[in-house]
Specification:
251 residues; mainly alpha; 63% helix
Length: 251
Amino acid sequence: MPKTVSEAIDWWLREEVRESNAGRNRILDNSVIDEFAKTRRAFMSDGSTNNMDSAKSRGHYDRFRLLFSIVDEGTLGNNDRLVGKIIHHSLMFVSGGFRSQCFLQAADAAEYAHLRFARNQETNGAAGVNIEGIVAGIDRDQLLGSRKQTVATIIATSGRINELIYKAHGDIYDWFAANPTRVLDRLGDDEPPVQAALRCQEAGITLAASHMLVAAWLRTDGLAAVPILEPKSISDAARDPIYPLAPDFVY
């Protein structure tokens, strides 16, 4: 099961990177490439109108909170559109964290483009963390219990992870505010902003995979019935979900 889930997540993330570079979200990549220094300097203040990362992370945080205001046992078990949206939003947390990581580890626009796109044909090529390892590390016994307990656990976990990811983005801005001379530097794996971007990815994968496991557990057809919205901006994704964990789904 971890391999099936991780393969679906990996496919979705790599497809979303390709799509985002061609669709409406290309403005995010183009802004970095066209105005690399200006965009990096905006990281010093999360209140800056130029800090698109801040605006994007706040939007995702609010959107996720709003979504969970209507989540209950019935919707998680029966509403494929809603569950597909939850998993979509969870994976967008991963995609955003990967974009931030590439940005932080680049010294210029060309290096950003290379880090973000050069490995897209490779397994795990659109994440800076080990997808399969994170999925395999989820404690299914803790997650899946009685129906009532499982629903309560996934709702609580979702709220906690949403807060964690939002705080991690804030940690990036705080670090740059305290280290303004580093704002244009290429940062290493062990430096706090990159570690924060990696935490966002790990948390998003954990969130998405946990919802996939719960969705499968609540449905008669198991993994084959797990819904996800298309790997596109939520504004462009089709209303009906896709089912990439089904045996006959072609990546």
